[in-house]
Amino acid sequence: MTLDAVDRRILRLLQSDGKLSYQEIGEAVGLSAPAAFQRVRKLESSGAITGYHARVAPAALDRAVLAFIEAVPDGAVDQGLLRRWHKTPAIQECHRLSGTDRFLLKVRCGSQADLVELVDAVRRAGCAVRTEIALETEFERWTVG
């Protein structure tokens, strides 16, 4: 999909406040509320907008331990493994890295004991594992562009 300047502006607005009304969006970009509604629907149907979410403090849901797990499967990548990781609530992100088949998992756990259980599960799935625990988050960017 090709995005014009108005589409990009709408995306930036919604990234900073997903609760804006169509009236507010329209006023910000010079459109009527119905025209803003149509633009947002077009952005949703094209896949440019993938969903709307509340940003919740991890500690509020007992997920204060942030870690990054590098997982290197000992053979061909099993799609079943990727599906299991996708279904694991503690695994927030999974990125395939360049080079040999390896993955970087961003995980949030309630405790170090929970993290140990998760790391052990990744090992039992046939992966070599290296884990780094974040001591402090300096900043996180939630917006793209």
Largest beta sheet: strand ordering: 2-3-1-4
Q: Any guess at the CATH architecture of the largest domain?
A: 2-Layer Sandwich
State the end-to-end distance.
16 Å
Mean pLDDT: 94
What is the CATH C-level name of the largest domain? Alpha Beta
The SSE string, one letter per element, is HHHEHEEHE
Protein architecture, described:
- The structure is a single chain.
- The chain is α+β, with helices and mostly antiparallel strands and 145 residues long.
- It has helices at residues 5-16, 22-29, 33-46, 79-87, 112-124; strands at residues 65-73, 91-97, 102-109, 127-133.
- A 4-stranded antiparallel β-sheet has the order 2-3-1-4, with helices on one face.
- Helix 2 (22-29) crosses helix 3.
- The model has no long low-confidence stretch (mean pLDDT 94).
Task: List key phrases describing it.
145 residues; alpha+beta; Arc Repressor Mutant, subunit A; Alpha-Beta Plaits; 2 domains; elongated
Question: Layout of SSEs?
Answer:
Layout: H1 5-16, H2 22-29, H3 33-46, E1 65-73, H4 79-87, E2 91-97, E3 102-109, H5 112-124, E4 127-133
Helix pairs in contact: 2-3
